[in-house]
Write a structure and sequence with these properties.
This protein is of the alpha+beta class. It contains 3 helices and 16 strands. Strand 4 and strand 5 form a beta hairpin. Bound molecules: 2-acetamido-2-deoxy-beta-D-glucopyranose.
Length: 301
């Protein structure tokens, strides 16, 4: 309070010495919260008229200015240093937009509107860490064959969580209706909020929110929330398929081994019979040759 009065006095004195006017309106400091990487607009709430002067300062640096006179329409926007390609001023209203905001842009912004009187406005831009999108998982920990009623009741336990947050509220909604919420102001490694549902539809959402912005996750409840029995059945099906494949692979390997062995034996037998046959052939061909000779001799002459 003392600090505020001090600033107020300083400002008043400064302005009086400069303009020599008493018509100074000083409004309280407006706090503007913004998430890192977002853009923020500081509104003048006026339309710039002829003979007006708009001056924006950040700390002690003049960052934007409009001077509008009969013959003159002067516009200046700083495009340097930490504000390079980040500042935009609306020429009609003098409202200032800071894009892709980072921690270096947080602090006190002062607006001085000089017309017939001088109006001062102050904005404290406060930066918040980017919000992660919440993660929703199905909690199967209560799901076992022994849990009573598990197979008959369509109950589903969901767990929504976010990591590395502070000053947030984590909530479950069904449509627009708030079901439950939890908030933290201290930095939190992981913030979780469970939800047990019996009605399976996709209108649930988990929202992590700062006071000024939020991130929402719409879980696919109907996909996530198979009943426990279905879950077990699914597991069984996967198990069955896997074992069937293993069995098949086993059979193929055995079959290949048996085949190879048979082939090997067959090969031996074949070799043996071929040997025998070769011997027989020799006898046969000798005989055949003789026969041929016997027959062929008379036909040649
Ligand atoms: C989330 O933010 C949007 C605007 O960005 C707002 O319309 C909505 O109501 C907010 N939702 C919650 C749950 O705060």
């Amino acid at each position: 309070m003392i600090l505020y009065d001090f600033i107020f006095l300083m400002n008043l004195c400064g302005l009086i010495s400069v303009s020599g006017l008493f018509g100074v309106e000083t409004h309280g400091v407006k706090t503007v919260s913004v998430m890192e990487g977002d853009s923020v607009t500081l509104n003048t709430d006026i339309t710039v008229q002829t003979e007006d002067q708009i001056l924006w300062t950040f700390g002690s640096v003049q960052i934007a200015e409009i001077i509008k006179k009969e013959q003159l329409n002067f516009v200046f926007v700083l495009n340097d240093g930490i504000f390079k390609e980040k500042l935009h001023m609306d020429n009609n209203t003098g409202s200032l937009t800071i894009g892709n905001i980072g921690s270096e842009h947080s602090g006190l912004y002062q607006l001085q509107i000089s017309s017939s009187k001088v109006l001062m406005k102050r904005f404290t831009v406060t930066l918040y860490a980017p919000l992660p999108i919440p993660e929703v998982i199905r909690d199967y920990s209560h799901c076992s064959t022994s849990s009573p009623g598990c197979s008959s009741v369509r109950k589903c336990l969901l767990l929504c969580s976010v990591v590395n947050v502070r000053n947030v509220t984590l909530s479950w909604y069904k449509g627009n209706r708030l079901l439950s919420s939890v908030n933290v102001s201290e930095p939190s490694i992981r913030l979780s909020l469970p939800l047990e549902i019996t009605c399976l539809d996709d209108s649930y959402s988990c929202v992590v929110a700062y006071s000024f912005t939020n991130r929402t996750k719409h879980p696919r409840v109907t996909e996530l929330c198979l009943t426990c029995l279905e879950h077990l059945r699914q597991a069984l099906v996967i198990l069955a398929i896997t074992s069937a494949f293993l069995m098949l692979a086993f059979i193929v390997v055995i079959a290949l081994m048996v085949c190879r062995r048979l082939k090997c034996n067959q090969g031996k037998e074949k070799a043996q019979t071929e040997e025998k046959m070769e011997n027989a052939d020799i006898h046969f061909s000798k005989q055949g040759a003789q026969d041929m000779m016997c027959v062929s001799v008379p036909t040649k002459e």
